[in-house]
Amino acid sequence: MTRLAALREATAAAGIGALLLTPGPDLRYVTGYEALPLERLTCLVVPAAGEAFMVVPRLELPAAEHSPAARLGVEFVPWDETDDPYALVARRIGPVADVGLADRMWAMQSLRFRDVLPEARQLLAGSVLRDLRMTKSPAEVDALREAGAAIDAVHALVPGLLKAGRTEREVGRDIAEAIVAAGHETVDFVIVASGPNGASPHHELSQRVIQAGDPVVVDIGGRMPSGYCSDSTRTYSVGEPPADFAAYYEILRRAQDAACAAVRPGVSCESVDAAAREVITEAGYGEYFIHRTGHGIGLETHEEPYIVAGNTEPLVPGHAFSVEPGVYLPGRHGARIEDIVVCTPSGAERLNVRPRELVVV
Ligand code: ZN
Ligand code: ZN
Ligand code: ZN
């Protein structure tokens, strides 16, 4: 069954009249079409009953016809510059009680849809798409495995790039090049957080000069030609690390292992988070672990399922997500270890396999 057919079934089962998918990850998941997000409306309409069709600006029609969406047999409905594409969608789907809007639809578009479909309650299409997107097929797991190997190859080069006297920005530029050289299509983020900057989980790059004795958090990722993303963190030390850093790094490593070991079908997302948090809290560093343990990954770097307290979603084989506990000491330094894992019938497969022991360079 195609993703489109599965989505139509799920839409009908959810009792939603139609899904409206504008350019973004939902549309890419369903059709493979990487349409540009523009003010001109491109929208795949998936009615619960009836055939899906895609409204496209006339000037985008050649691009749509050359996209994988054409192979799905979806009817393209082009519109001209003076047409109202929103009214066109409303006319074709008729009166519906509920519409599901792509989670990343722009507000200017969702408000126009409200104007032309005033009776329809607006919901997130994600409520229907989440189960489909969250549970990766074997082909999707292969794509994530390939992404994992590519970013591991970059981490293998990092010790050679980290040197006292270089700035974070210089190191980051080299890493960005390596991300592309390793097979990624785009560089999504490069975090090189040295010394005190390591205490800020999303610090990116600065002109700070790396010093001897600095722990350095390196969190990097990109998107492969398959569309699937990589994301992996290792923490390095340039020369011998400070004693208070060495004291918690080993605890962090055990916490990350404990969370990976907790992964198996039926276990809730929140208990994977708890497995990591318990180790860190028991060692007295609980207040310095200031974020959730992980996030799902696929066509987006951050997607469901989130590995966080309160998320009782049970894992099933095919769920793919990061396990990335961290410890952050404000003004001092920080550390994070991050692997992407996939839930398998018997446990977890790590898609990142670089050593997790502290690498002293
Ligand atoms: Zn993050
Ligand atoms: Zn991550
Ligand atoms: Zn990351």
Summed up:
This protein is an alpha/beta fold and 361 residues long.
How does the SSE layout of this entry go?
Elements: H1 3-13, E1 18-21, H2 25-31, E2 43-47, E3 53-57, H3 61-65, E4 75-79, H4 85-93, E5 98-101, H5 107-116, E6 121-124, H6 126-134, H7 138-161, H8 168-181, E7 186-194, E8 214-223, E9 232-238, H9 243-262, H10 269-282, E10 294-296, E11 303-307, E12 320-323, E13 326-329, E14 333-336, E15 339-343, E16 348-350, E17 359-360
Parallel strand pairs: 1-5, 3-4, 5-6, 9-17
Antiparallel strand pairs: 1-2, 2-3, 7-8, 8-9, 10-11, 12-15, 13-14, 15-16
Bound molecules: zinc ion (3 copies).
Note down, in words, how this protein is organized.
This protein is of the alpha/beta class and 361 residues long. It folds into two domains: 3-133, Creatine Amidinohydrolase, Chain A, domain 1, CATH 3.40.350.10; 138-360, Creatine Amidinohydrolase (Alpha-Beta Complex). Helices cover 34% and strands 23% of the residues. The strands form five sheets. Strands 4-3-2-1-5-6 form a six-stranded mixed beta sheet. A four-stranded mixed beta sheet has the order 7-8-9-17, with helices on one face. Strands 12-15-16 form a three-stranded antiparallel beta sheet, with helices on one face. Helix 9 (243-262) packs antiparallel against helix 10 (269-282). It is elongated, with a radius of gyration of 23 Å. The model has no long low-confidence stretch (mean pLDDT 97). The structure holds zinc ion (3 copies). One zinc ion is lined by residues 219, 221, 231, 233, 324, 338.
